[in-house]
Amino acid sequence: MASKKFLxxxxxxxxxxxxxxxxxxxxLIGAAFEQDVTLAFVDDGVYQLLQNQDTAGIGAxxxxxxxxxxxxxxxxxxxxxxxSLEMRGLSKEDLMPLTYEDEDDDWAEKDSIHVVSSDELxxxxxxxxVILNF
Amino acid sequence: MAIEINGKSYDTDxxxxxxxxxxWNDQLAxxxxxxxxxxxxxxxxxxxxxxxxxxxxxQIAPAVRVxxxxxxxxxxxxxxxxxxxxxxxxxGPAKQACKYAGLPKPTGCV
Lengths: 134, 110
Hints:
The complex is a heterodimer.
Chain A: E1 5-10, H1 19-32, E2 36-41, H2 64-67, E3 77-81, H3 82-87, E4 99-101, E5 109-111, E6 113-116, H4 118-126, E7 130-133
Parallel strand pairs in A: 1-2, 1-7, 2-3, 3-6
Antiparallel strand pairs in A: 4-5
Chain B: E1 2-5, E2 8-11, H1 26-35, H2 42-58, H3 64-75, H4 82-88, H5 93-100
Antiparallel strand pairs in B: 1-2
């Protein structure tokens, strides 16, 4: 089976709806089947990647640590829209560091998160075979 | 479904996976293995403990491909092969070892 380019667009805050957690689940399944997986975080979706999340107060599972497993699943292309961050007073430093090991190069730990403008993101969307919105 | 040990009952789902992660103990793992006709040795325990640590850190049970790679990294290259892991857990390393470790079925398993 030829692999297709899958893009998962995450637009919603991590809690308050099931979208974020379901998206992550689908991403992991797609990656386990060795599809070419790219993630984009726009609008309130950028909150999913915030550092030091604590869900104790709302009684929901804190699935944020699962994002750190994405590197193990060879998911290394994670794009965050700059405008969405700025509109919320956030920058890359507010996001949790996500890395992967570069098996094709030098096995070094590399940064998976790339902050891009909405124009750059439009180009990335253009290159995909399948786009799933969450 | 449930597993009985010394008069105490532990709930499982229809496939034998533990319902409450926090119910888990060594004896429960041994009991589940026995039901499958297996006896757990130190090599099994190494993988089971690895999975529990992985879940603690990432909140998921890894898919088999990821498990194999991660085991190789942590426990040594000779152990990070599907052959080694399938010999230990013939029903599928991710599925069977996760069950004994009291974790949910790995994401992506059907």
